[in-house]
User: Which sequence fits this backbone?
């Protein structure tokens, strides 16, 4: 268990220091985290609403932060290029995210071809019925995306790496609120980049100088 928690701490830390320099990105992650917590609650009450909130609000804000606002030039703080970070990223790098988002965006087309999706759904009698069926598909895409990458990591890395990554993904909303709840205020003060990450990296290197970078 100690090894698992240490690996989780490292994955969380690497995700923060490599991929969350922008205060806009951090602020969007804060909004995303709150939205995901709403989805977590609603999945037990109304899975369709949970999926709609998760994909249309939580995932949209989160990925917009990464795609449009996070710097992609040379990372002076971590002494790493964007290409290097993308290459060794454990979870979904930008290329993999594009594939997942493409599957999500294209998935409603299946209901145009067969409104019952081979008998899985009742024939929709209204637009609301159709939207709820789309939401169920999106829920399956989200769960499938986590399971697919987890099992993939089992095969290309090891079981612990996959389980640690899955745990990190599922608990990210709680951790992101803790990390980024002050980001909107910093953004209002005109702070576009979190320069404190440099100090955090220096402190981490002093505490664990032998730690090799493993991105999440």
Assistant:
């Amino acid at each position: 268990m100690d090894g698992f928690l240490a690996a989780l701490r490292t994955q969380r830390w690497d995700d923060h220091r490599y991929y969350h320099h922008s205060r806009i990105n951090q602020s969007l992650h804060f909004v995303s985290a709150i939205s995901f917590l709403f989805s977590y609650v609603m999945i037990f009450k109304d899975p369709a609403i949970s999926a709609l909130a998760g994909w249309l609000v939580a995932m949209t804000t989160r990925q917009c932060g990464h795609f449009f606002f996070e710097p992609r030039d040379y990372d002076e703080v971590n002494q790493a290029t964007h290409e290097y970070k993308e290459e060794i990223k454990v979870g979904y790098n930008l290329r993999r995210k594009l594939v997942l988002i493409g599957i999500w965006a294209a998935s409603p087309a299946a209901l145009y071809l067969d409104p019952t999706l081979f008998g899985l759904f009742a024939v929709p009698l209204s637009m609301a019925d159709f939207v709820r069926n789309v939401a169920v598909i999106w829920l399956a895409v989200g769960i499938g995306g986590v399971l697919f990458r987890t099992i993939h990591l089992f095969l290309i890395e090891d079981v612990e790496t996959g389980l640690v990554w899955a745990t990190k993904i599922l608990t990210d909303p709680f951790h992101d609120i803790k990390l980024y709840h002050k980001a909107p205020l910093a953004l209002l003060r005109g702070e576009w980049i979190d320069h404190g990450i440099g100090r955090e990296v220096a402190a981490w290197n002093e505490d664990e100088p032998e730690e090799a970078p493993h991105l999440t």
Q: What stands out?
A: The first helix runs from residue 2 to 19. The radius of gyration is 19 Å. The mean pLDDT is 93.
